[in-house]
Amino acid sequence: xxxxxxxxxxxxxxxxxxxxxxxxxxxxxxxxxxxxxxxxxxxxxxxxxxxxxxxxxxxxxxxxxxxxxxxxxxxxxxxxxxxxxxxxxxxxxxxxxxxxxxxxxxxxxxxxxxxxxxxxxxxxxxxxxxxxxxxxxxxxxxxxxxxxxxxxxxxxxxxxxxxxxxxxxxxxxxxxxxxxxxxxxxxxxxxxxxxxxxxxxxxxxxxxxxxxxxxxxxxxxxxxxxxxxxxxxxxxxxxxxxxxxxxxxxxxxxxxxxxxxxxxxxxxxxxxxxxxxxxxxxxxxxxxxxxxxxxxxxxxxxxxxxxxxxxxxxxxxxxxxxxxxxxx
Length: 328
Hints:
Helices cover 41% and strands 16% of the residues. The chain has a 7-stranded parallel β-sheet with strand order 3-2-1-4-5-6-10, with helices on both faces. The chain is of the alpha/beta class.
């Protein structure tokens, strides 16, 4: 079969492309002048050079293929860049959904669990029906919710589409890096405090397999959570410290401290006119329990996740093989 994949140089998109090629499929990928093409080295793919913010370019992506996997997205956890996120995440998704509808081509929209609610506490977890209360409004959560809404509206008009909601992912081929940045920030350093909440951690290779299964067996108009092991950030960072050979963090940050740190980050934004990664939205997200139930995907897509420690070890092994990490 022949597929178009957007976001193929990103974390989930690159692993998806490799899984599709391993399955014997033909793959076309979208690239921009700013794309890190190392991610495509040695891969037998056709490159489509263009900008997803260009509706005319997007309209060509479903032509002469059996399906489109839309993985491209800008990630910014902050109060700023909402308009930019809408332009980069929402508008291209709406245009691609309409193009797929017109061409009669199946679309898999790779969303995020950040379009869903978070768990009430560390003993609870959410499924696909839990949309409220919404996570804090920031560039990423707003754009992911609105992108999903575009796809669902197109489904109502006849689009053959399924939505998948991956959780936090670790694993190889993290070129940016994405989650690998967290491991690198811990490597060889003592980081005493972690965010106070928790997260569902999946191996990106398992998520890629789940995305392909969603194309093959996912029901039209449904969403499927592709999550993993629900753990606190403290537990996750201690595992990362173990894998990287770094000192273990002491304890999780309390909500009051997190709030003060977030206010400090926002103050820096006002002083410097530039929002840093440390801001009130990011700190608030870090205090939530992003715990999810993948039971629906397990039952309908045969989705499965590998052990967390082995996923982290594979992630670190790959990061260590990359030249920029060699000095860590």
